[in-house]
Amino acid sequence: MLLSSTSIEVLSDLIENRLAIMSIGDQDDLREKIALKRALTELRNNGQIPPGALSEFSDIPRRGRRRKVGSAEAI
């Protein structure tokens, strides 16, 4: 995907403004904030993601409850 430098600057500014006014109220807001930070990282690197740059985004919270793991009995 090719974007002009002006488009990248405008999109970066929009994302930064959204992040600045965003307040985290629930898990959906947190997910959105992490997705916006990831998009900003990608834009700043012109779509090229350096190795290890997204490690902080790998812990996006899942929706719903965690699965309960009961004691597994061998039959």
Give a quick rundown of the structure.
The chain has 75 residues and is mainly alpha-helical. It has a domain at 5-49. The chain has helices spanning 5-21, 27-44.
Walk me through what this model shows.
The structure is a single chain. This protein is an all-alpha fold. The protein has a domain at 5-49. The protein contains two helices and no strands. It has helices at 5-21, 27-44. Helix 1 (5-21) runs antiparallel to helix 2. The longest helix is centred in the middle third of the chain and has 18 residues, at 27-44. 0% of the residues are buried. The model has no long low-confidence stretch (mean pLDDT 76).
Radius of gyration: 18 Å
Residue-averaged pLDDT: 76
Number of strands: 0
Strand content: under 5%
Number of helices: 2
Order of helices and strands: HH
SSE-based structural type? mainly alpha
Unreliable segments of 5+ consecutive residues: none
**Sheet having the most strands:** none
What is the helix fraction of residues, given as a range?
40-55%
